[in-house]
Specification:
Layout (H helix, E strand, L loop, with lengths): L2 H18 L17 E4 L8 E3 L13 E7 L5 H16 L3 E7 L8 H10 L2 E5 L4 H16 L4 E6 L3 H11 L5 E4 L8 H13 L13 E3 L7 E5 L1 H10 L13 H8 L9 E6 L4 E4 H11 L6 H13 L13 E7 L2 H4 L14 H17 L21 E3 L10 H4 L8 E14 L4 H12 L8 E5 L1 H8 L5 H11 L1 E3 H5 L2 H11 L19 E3 L6 E5 L8 E13 L5
Parallel strand pairs: 3-4, 3-5, 5-6, 6-7, 12-13, 15-18
Antiparallel strand pairs: 1-9, 2-8, 10-11, 12-14, 14-19, 15-19, 16-17
Length: 567
């Protein structure tokens, strides 16, 4: 046998040997492996203890009584105006004195002078909300304030927002009486209208129930530590059905994963981070934040950022925006060394998908709203269209490539501090890419002057764009000044805005503190004025160096928190 034939024979023997090796026996009756069972920790926040306050004693009758009927000056609602007119007629027929009053301040303010007037002159009141989630929430708060002063009343709201108003009453500890109107008001029959008016008026005279007279401290039951035990699919469904997710699959927050997450901070699991997680407000502990962090897919080293975000969100002016029908979102900006320590992306695609830290930290805040704050779509999360930037809107400033000081330094912090800033808004923006130099700044200023509620604008500049202006000797403050000075309107157009009636006008009269110059009250209609208070224009440098781009987002009301304190 020649060498070639021998090698072929050896190869065949090896093949035969391999083929003839005994394999595992095939059990046709074997059962599939059982799915693993997990115990998922409960992400729900804690309702705080409330002091139950009874409603004011009801009136023995309406004859001869003075009833204040209070509607919002803005936003105006033709349906409510029509209903208020019919209620006033019914009161007059019962020989009651009707005083119709417009609440001139924003719906979210208490308005003590009006409370004082009602307390001094009224025997009862009827407060009318509008077809908006935020105005409904604050109608219950406003009515509760009068009830605590001993004035019996009722708040009239649209039925679509009833659960939101009821939840507000529960957390206040004052079960304000509510009369509801169909959201499809134009379909209301004469009989239904009669029933609505009858219910409204009876709320002023029907004796208090035992529940309405309760007093003393009340601590709502705390959720169990373990939310449920089951397979991954079962837990995913349970969390989704409970309203604890953003609609996307979550990482199951098992005891082991949460314990690993808690290694990211030196703070104790039961330490309270905030007592105002919206839309609750719910009390939130370090462990609860860690649970949501696991669900979002965060790493333990991100936990200090998450804790600072929860604290900043709770301290911010977010009670109205989170429930608003205006579809707000929240921009999170990270500054300081933590950006690089946890691998955040401040360069190309910083605002887009692709970076684990940016994406999951941004996602966590939305999970805070749903799981920690009790947010439920269709109950107290009522954004008419919603907002895609509500899924995740988090990025670090590109401090290394910026020619200017970063945001947190402008706010008075040290460069070596790690800070998170949360802005609310995010429901309109304008981009600017093709215009060179100051022409682009002028157009940007003109564009942001048209934003619906001129409360603030953050301009996101790429490093290339920022250096272009810096090379001309312009500081960040110079650029903010130019954008601010170019965002102009005529006084007439400014006053024609719904938000002027709701927020800006009251601010000019000293009833709020947004910061518009008081001299605007004396300006003629043709005067050219700046649409924003100067402090409400901010520049942040973010993105890559591939083009000199910038974009402006309609966001404002920044709240900040130290990340370092949560390490």
């Amino acid at each position: 046998m020649d060498m070639r034939a021998r090698k072929m024979a050896e190869a065949l023997c090896v093949i035969c040997f391999v083929v003839m090796l005994p394999g595992p026996s095939l059990d046709l009756h074997a059962q599939p492996a059982a799915e693993p069972i997990f115990k998922a920790l409960n992400p729900a926040g804690y309702l705080p203890q409330v002091d139950l306050v009874p409603l004011a004693a009801r009136l023995p009758g309406l004859e001869g009584k003075t009833i204040y009927m209070i509607t919002l000056a803005s936003p105006k609602d033709p349906a409510i105006d029509s209903l208020a007119s019919k209620v006033a007629e019914a009161l007059t027929r019962q020989n009651a004195k009707v005083v119709q009053k417009k609440k001139e301040t924003t719906y979210s303010s208490d308005d003590k002078p009006l409370w004082d007037e009602v307390q001094k002159n009224a025997d009862g009141f009827i407060y009318f909300g509008t077809a908006q989630s935020s105005t409904t929430t604050f109608s219950a708060i406003w009515a509760a304030g009068l009830e605590k002063r001993g004035i019996p009343g009722v708040t009239v709201i649209f039925d679509f927002f009833h659960r939101s108003a009821q939840a507000t009453c529960e957390r206040l500890g004052t079960m304000v009486r509510i009369a509801t109107v169909p959201l499809a008001f134009d379909t209301v029959t004469d009989r239904q209208m009669s029933e609505i008016i009858d219910t409204t008026l009876k709320a002023l005279t029907m004796p208090l129930t035992e529940q309405e007279m309760k007093t003393g401290p009340h601590l709502p039951a705390r959720p169990p530590r373990i939310a449920m035990e089951g397979t991954e699919d079962q837990i995913q469904k349970y969390f989704y059905d409970s309203g604890w997710t953003d609609g996307l699959p979550i990482i199951i927050p098992t005891e082991e994963k949460v314990a690993q997450m808690l290694k990211g901070t030196s703070h104790k699991p039961d330490e309270v981070v905030t007592k105002r997680m919206w839309p609750g407000p719910f009390e939130v502990t370090v462990e609860k934040v860690a649970i949501s962090g696991v669900m979002a897919g965060c790493k333990p080293e991100y936990l200090p950022v998450l804790l600072a975000a929860a604290e900043a969100f709770g301290s911010g002016d977010n009670a109205a925006t989170v429930v608003s029908t205006n579809s707000f979102s929240f921009m999170q900006v990270i500054n300081g060394p933590i950006r690089n320590q946890i691998g955040m992306n401040a360069g190309i695609f910083a605002l887009g998908p692709g970076n684990h830290a940016n994406a999951t930290i941004g996602r966590a805040l939305r999970l805070f709203v749903h799981s920690l704050g009790g947010g439920r779509v269709g109950e107290n999360l009522m954004g008419t269209q919603g907002n895609v930037s509500a899924y995740t809107f988090c990025f670090p400033e590109n401090e290394e490539k910026s020619p200017w000081e970063p945001l947190h330094v402008s706010q008075g912090y040290k460069r070596e501090e790690s800070i998170i800033t949360i802005f609310n808004g995010g429901w309109s923006h304008v981009g600017n890419y093709i215009f060179e130099g100051m022409e682009g700044i002028e157009k940007l200023g003109q564009a942001i002057a048209q934003f619906e509620w001129p409360s603030g604008a953050v301009i996101l500049m790429s490093p290339t764009k920022a250096r272009l202006f810096s090379s001309k000797g312009l500081s960040k403050q110079d650029m903010e000044e130019r954008i601010w000075s170019g965002a102009t309107l005529t006084m007439k157009r400014f006053k024609d805005s719904t938000y002027y009636r709701s927020f800006i006008g009251p601010d000019l009269k000293g009833k709020l503190s947004y910061g518009w110059p008081k001299e605007y009250l004396d300006k003629p209609d043709d005067a050219i004025i700046q649409a924003y208070p100067r402090k409400h224009i901010k520049i942040i440098v973010v993105g890559g160096e591939v083009a000199d781009m910038m974009q402006a987002w309609k966001v404002g009301s920044p709240s900040t928190s130290s990340i370092d304190q949560w390490r």
